[in-house]
Amino acid sequence: MQATAEPAPVMDDFLPPGLRVPSHDQLDGRMMPWTQPLVLNGEMVACAACGAYRDWLILSTRDQIWLRCRADHQQRETRLDTAWYNRNAGPADATHATFEDCLRHLGH
Ligand SMILES: [Zn+2]
After folding, report:
1. pTM
2. Which end of the chain has fewer surrounding CB within 10 Å, N or C?
3. Which sign, positive or negative, has the C-alpha torsion 100, 24, 69, 83?
4. What gap in Å lies between CA 49 and CA 24, rounded to an integer?
5. 62 is a domain residue
């Protein structure tokens, strides 16, 4: 009996780590909705892609903070860190089975 060769999984590994956006199958963090404008150092954060400045999802994953706008653009916010996230996230941070569940829950 001969083992059939499974096709090798396609590795999406060519981007430098800084450009990799957490995807739903690798997200091992938490997220919270942030509906008001986000002001850092007196500067309002806007989405680099569409200019949205409110209605964020804030993702905390592997010591990185990512902002996701209503149009599903994601950008890393290096001025924020996990400590900031933990200070601002409510203790009753809902946990969800999957990233998609969580997005649905938050209306995204
Ligand atoms: Zn956007």
Report:
1. 0.61
2. N
3. positive
4. 20
5. yes
In a domain, 75, yes or no: yes
- For residue 41, the 8-state DSSP code is T
Asked whether residue 22 is assigned to any structural domain, the reply reads no
Measure 59 CA to ligand 1 centroid, in angstroms. Answer: 15
State how many domains the chain has.
1
Instruction: State which residues have CB under 5 angstroms from ligand 1, the bound ion.
Output: 47, 49-50, 52, 69, 71, 73
- Taking the C-alpha atoms of residue 45 and residue 43, their distance in angstroms, rounded to an integer, is 6
Contact status, residue 76 vs residue 56, Cβ threshold 8 Å: no
Cβ contact 106:57 at 8 Å: yes
> Per residue in 62-89, pLDDT tens?
889 999 999 999 999 999 999 999 899 8
* C-alpha span between 65 and 10 (Å, rounded): 27
- Residue-number span of the structural domain to which 50 is assigned: 29-105
Tokens for 39, please give them.
Answer: 């002001």
How far apart are alpha carbons 55 and 50 in whole angstroms? 13
